[in-house]
């Protein structure tokens, strides 16, 4: 029995008291701990086609460490790998089975979106576009004593029109409702033992198994490529009397790296005002990060950025001295870094745009002809 069968069972027992679906997108999906990895799947269905480029009535996306590796949508109704490692390692049989699963989910979402709209007092005749979404997956960390990643936590959340509706707590094994309309559903789901067992079994078991496999594929692909990170050092004006000295490193083949910023050979730390930023994925299956510190324009120290990629042993050292300073007068990044960051965040931005349009339409600020 798969998830669709279990959910339909609950819906039938509730006599149309519906399944609810999706989670707000504010969930952080980018992996910042080099030893921690994530496998997340996001499903989005809309009650009508907005007619906007890149926005589909139904979309399903798989993300490894916050980076999309497969997708399915109404314009391309096939589970399609989107990264080099996925294209190389995901078999035709795996993709065929995944395609059938997502076709089934597409139909399931279409039926149950109507049910949830009714529960919320909405209908297709009101002229609004409504969104139902589901986010689920797991986080695992490296376990030195085993090849398989160790389960850290799981997520299984649902929302409607961007607002939380229901979520599963894998510790208490209970569903909780975020709205009054969802309480009967949560109560019913909590009474269906097989659904609870399936959900926690997937999060702690099957999801971690696939996460371990996919991380292995990704690392193997990246280690086969000789990639030396690009390192940039520059300053940027602040609103005050200081400059911000920034070191950006981009192109790590794996998310296992170390960066140090030094002044006159002394390693700077948070007591010196050092800022360490989160690691972000690039659009070529590599990673980037940055560190920064505020300095006085009169500072004559010699600064060094020391970057080490731990898995491969690649090391890059860049120096920034008073005689060759480069100041960036406006807030911005080199074009290649900016492009990589935008690609890494485009999935989040797209969903925010959909929710924004839906809410604007509901308040009458955007016409139905968009």
UniProtKB/TrEMBL annotation:
Residues covered by the Ig-like domain: 229-307
InterPro entries in the cross-refs: Ig-like_dom, Ig-like_dom_sf, Ig-like_fold, Ig_C1-set, MHC_class-I_related, MHC_I-like_Ag-recog, MHC_I-like_Ag-recog_sf, MHC_I/II-like_Ag-recog
Cellular-component GO terms for this entry: external side of plasma membrane; extracellular space
PROSITE patterns associated with the record: IG_LIKE
Transmembrane portions of the chain: 337-358
Record flagged with keyword Glycoprotein: yes
Keyword annotations from UniProtKB, A to Z: Glycoprotein, Membrane, Transmembrane, Transmembrane helix
Superkingdom classification of source: Eukaryota
PANTHER family reported for this sequence: LOC571647 PROTEIN-RELATED (PTHR16675:SF193), MHC CLASS I-RELATED (PTHR16675)
Protein name: H-2 class I histocompatibility antigen, L-D alpha chain-like
Gene: LOC109200342
């Amino acid at each position: 029995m798969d998830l669709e069968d279990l959910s339909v069972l609950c819906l039938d027992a509730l006599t149309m008291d519906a399944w609810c679906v999706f989670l707000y997108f504010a969930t952080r999906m980018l992996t910042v701990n080099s030893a921690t990895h994530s496998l997340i799947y996001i499903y989005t269905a809309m009650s009508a086609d907005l007619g906007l480029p890149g926005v589909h009535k139904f979309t399903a996306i798989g993300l490894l460490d916050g980076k999309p590796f497969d997708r399915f949508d109404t314009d391309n109704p096939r589970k399609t790998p989107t990264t080099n490692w996925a294209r190389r390692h995901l078999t035709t049989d795996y993709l065929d089975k995944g395609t059938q699963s997502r076709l089934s989910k597409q139909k399931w979402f279409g039926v149950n979106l109507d049910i949830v709209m009714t529960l919320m007092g909405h209908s297709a005749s009101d002229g609004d576009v409504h969104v139902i979404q589901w986010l689920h997956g797991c986080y695992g960390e490296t376990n030195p004593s085993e090849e398989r990643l160790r389960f850290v936590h799981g997520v299984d959340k649902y929302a409607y029109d961007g607002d939380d509706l229901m979520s599963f707590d894998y510790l208490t094994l209970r569903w909780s409702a975020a709205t009054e309309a969802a309480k009967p559903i949560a109560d019913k789901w909590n009474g269906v033992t097989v659904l609870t067992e399936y959900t926690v079994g997937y999060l702690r078991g099957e999801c971690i198994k696939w996460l371990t496999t996919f991380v292995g594929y990704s690392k193997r692909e990246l280690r086969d490529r000789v990639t030396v990170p690009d390192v940039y050092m520059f300053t940027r004006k602040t609103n005050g009397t200081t400059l911000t000295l920034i070191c950006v490193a981009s192109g790590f083949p794996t998310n296992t790296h170390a960066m140090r910023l030094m002044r006159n050979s002394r390693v700077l730390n948070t007591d010196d005002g050092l800022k360490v930023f989160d690691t972000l994925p690039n659009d070529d299956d590599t990673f980037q990060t940055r560190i920064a510190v505020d300095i006085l324009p009169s500072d004559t120290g010699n600064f060094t950025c020391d970057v080490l990629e731990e898995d491969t042993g690649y090391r890059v050292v860049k120096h920034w001295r008073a005689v060759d300073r480069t100041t960036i007068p406006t807030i911005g990044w080199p074009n290649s870094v900016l492009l990589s960051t935008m690609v890494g965040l485009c999935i989040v931005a797209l969903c925010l745009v959909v929710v924004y349009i839906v809410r604007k339409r509901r308040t009458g600020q955007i016409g139905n002809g968009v």
